[in-house]
Every structure is written in C-alpha cells, then in structure tokens.
Amino acid sequence: LKMSWLWLYLPLHLLMATCLCHSIKAPTSSSQQSFKSNLFNFYHSLLLADGKETTIHLLKDIPKRYYFVLEEGRALAPFSITVTPCDVPIEWSILVYKPPPGKAAPGDHDTQEVSKSHKASSMVSTLFNYKGNSVETYMGMSSHSALYLLEFLSTERDTHITVYLTTDTTSGHLYPELPGDPRIDVIGIGHTTVTLAWKHSPSVLQHSEGIQYCLLVNEKHNYKSLCAAETAIRSSGMKLPPTVALSLSPYLLEPQQVMILSNSELSIINRVSSGEVRQVCMGTKNTYTVPNLSPSTQYYFDVFIVNLLTNASAAYTGTFARTLEEPEPKVTELKDGKVIHVVLDGKKQKFYSLQYQARHKKIHFTFQLCRGQIRVHITRNGKTVASENLSGLRYFSLKGKLLDTYSVQLRSTEEANSSVKVLASPHFHKPLFPLLPESLKIKSFSKLRTCRSVTIAWLGTQEESKYCVYRKRIEEDQIWRELQSADRCSGPESRHKSEKVLCKYFYDLNLQRAVTTETIKGLEAGTLYLFDVYLFGPSGIPVRYHSKVVKTRKKC
Prior knowledge:
- The structure is a single chain.
- By secondary structure, the chain is mainly β.
- It folds into 4 domains: about 45-100 and about 125-170, Jelly Rolls (Sandwich); about 175-235 and about 275-325, Sandwich (Immunoglobulin-like); about 330-425, Sandwich (Jelly Rolls), CATH 2.60.120; about 440-550, Immunoglobulin-like (Sandwich), CATH 2.60.40.
- About 10% of the residues lie in helices and about 40% in strands.
- Helix 2 packs across helix 3.
- It comes from Quiscalus mexicanus.
- It is found in: Secreted.
C-alpha cells in the first residue's frame, strides 16, 4: 500500500484504520519513517472546534494534539489561534501538512519511492513554536488547502489551558480588545489606598453593554490571564467557581470569601494562605481607588476587560505598588488623675497612643468604653503587660519600678467611630469612676407590665451611690439605631429634661440583696419606651447601664 496525500482529508476513523493497515509494512528509508511518524500524530489527534474556546487538560510530559483543516475554495483563508496557559509555562507548536503539487513522474520503482518520500517529508513544516505562560495569538493566512496540527506539552505538572481557533476574522472578536498601550498607571499611593488608571478598551467604546473592567489585587505576583488567577486561588485550598466575580452570576460564597456590594461595584475578598485576593468589578470606569489596604505592604494589580456574555477576557499589563508606611501616631501624655476622652475615626485614624511615666511602683489604668469596639495594648519599657478588647469599664492594676515608662496604644477594630475614656492614677483607693455591680443590665418584669406602667430592676453595689432613671418614647424602626449609637460615657446632661423620671440613692452590704426596683407610671398604652439608668460615683462621673426597650400593653 503506497502513501497518498488523499488520506489527510479522510474522516478520522478511516484515517485510523488506514494507519493500522499501512503500519504493517516496514519503512523503506529513514525519511519515510519520519514521515510516517508525523502522520501517526494526526491519527491520534482530536478535531479542534472552530469559533469556540476549548479547555484542554494536560498531563505532565504527555503531549496532546489537535488538528483542523482549511478547506479548498477559499482564496487566502485567514485564521488565528489564541492559547492561554492557566498555570505553569507550557510548550506548544503549529505544524502544517500540505499536499504535493502533483504525482511523481513514472520511472524506476526504487527511485520513485525515494523521490516521493523526500517530497512528502518536505511538505511537513513548523509554523510556530512557543514556550512560556503568556497568552499568545498566532495569525496566519493560507492560499491553498492544508491540514494543521497543534501540539501541547506541559513539563512541570498537570495543568489546563484554553485554545481559541477562528477562521472567521471579520465578524468580531471573542476576546475584548486591549488598547494600544495596555499598561496600568499608578496615579496615587496612600497608607491604605492605591489609585489606578488605564486606557479604555476599544470594546468598551464600541459595545459598552456586556463589557466591563474587573480588577484583581493580591500580595504575591501578577497574573497574565484570568484563568491563571483563578487557578492560583483554587490551589490555595479554596473552591472558587470559575469567573464567579466576573460573571456576576448567583452562587454560594465559601467560608473564606467575603462579598461587598457598594456603589454598583462588586468586591469579593478571598482569604487564602498567602494573604487576601480581591476581585472587584467596576463597570466601564477606567480609574479605581483600592481601599482598606495594609500600610507598608506591596500589592500586585491586574486589570481584565471581560465580556460578561461569553466570559472571555483579556489582561492588561499588570503593575505593583507599595503602600506608604503607617505614620507615627501622635503621643499624648497621661497625667495623674486626669481623664482623657479619645475618639477614633475607624476610617482615617485607627490608632492612638498615650504615654505615662510612673512616679509610684503601683499604677492603675481605667478604661471606660463609650462607643464602638476598641482594643488596648499596654507596654512597660517596651514589653507587653496587657492586651485585650475593651468592654464596659475595665481596670488594670500594674506593679513596676519608679520612673517606668508605660505606653498605651488604642486601636479601633471597626470602621465606625469609637471612643473611650482613659485614666491613669497611683491612688486606686480614690477612684474617679464609681464602683460597678456585677452586671449593668436592666431587667423588666413582663407580668408587672400594664397599659400605663412598666416595672424595671437593676443591680447596685455595697457603696451608697446615686442612680437616675430616664425614659424616651421611640418607634419600632428606631430601636436598632438607638441601641447601636448610644454613647455609654455620656451623662444625663445630654438628655432632655422631660425624659427624667427620678433619682435615688441606695446600697446594700450584702450583694445578694443589692437590687432595686422602680415602677414607672404615666405611660401610654401599646407604646415602646427606651429606659436608661445612670450610676454616679463620688467624683460625679456617670456610668450608663445598658439601655432597655419595653412596650406597654395594648389592652388591659
């Protein structure tokens, strides 16, 4: 059976059968053997779809081959092939098989075989070779019928790639277009922010619907494609749905993911072992300020232009930037017996530092949390002696040496404003703050509740103190705001006079009996009331109990 170039245009199953039959006969020369080897690659290849992105999985050191045919009847048929590695660098090449121009002239059989083998071997040529992990596109033109073979190989580990072949280069592009200058410019750097800008994609200017920019931020390195970024996130131990943040399709967030939707921007923060990986889609805006970064940290930024209808994307040239170092916080000197009120803006100023030089061996720090959430960190001569989250009124009694230097750092743990009162004093037996009961909760008695009155109770102490009760009528939609925004350090001076119910003194040396009750009368039926109790110590500084909301009975 003699070799014929017509085989290249037979269906694949016929090619396979013919290959098996032909392989029975031993090759007559080394060039003929090489030619058979090349054809054998065809017979073990898959047809590559035209006009469709194909995902190909590669096993380490095992080549995978695909073929496609450019048919006759098309003068100067154009085609393009785009290969996107989704992980490690790969090797890939394009081979072309062209039929000889005509049959060999009759003559001696041996001479005819050698001539034919040499001619056939010369019809196999390599068009393109590439090794790396960048997205590469080969554009070609063929003026005659030809059969093309694509060979892919991964030598590092198992991986996957995407391949897009098209022979229709006039009806549009699967991938969004990049501008002539695809670089990302860093136009502003702050302590916790980086501002980026990039040139518009022609696809956005031509077809704004279904096209948008998406940004990926991480602390490791830049990614040359969207699928490479997704692969890296998955390899960190996370189950990430493909293009989840970019397609904006409904899905269930993993425990390591946080989704933030604000100002028509979708942000997804993935908690991985190497830090945070953020995905932000911002529509067709070509500038963006990345918020909530850590000071003095290097970040890598990648912008992708994404077709939401096809999930196809193109990557701008990534960039990186290092945020500015955290400025040294202003240090305020603490003085004996003087209360300092510290207000922290969670968005702008998260830290506040205080310093105190001891003039006695025993030192007492008092913290009264007024609003928000604050963590306190106390050091003595540079060594940590206390660190915890504040709650209510907190005392720290520390023992050291004369002239020891204490540093107190306060940090807001939320974006809302936080505030705290701080006192340092060597005289614990004369505290400015009152002695507190075991609990600052106010209790109401449902069975004693009527249409016109409510009975409440609260704990006292062994020290005779003054207690003042205030009430305020509120609506259902005000409950959450009133309870969350309450300043626990504010005293009755911030209340309207009409809200005051009464003031009383009481104490009991037996803490089991240090409980008082009060029935507040003159209320309206079926109405919500907010009740507050203020405790005053010897110095007159108040401590506010936790507010209590009670509704009077509607019918009696």
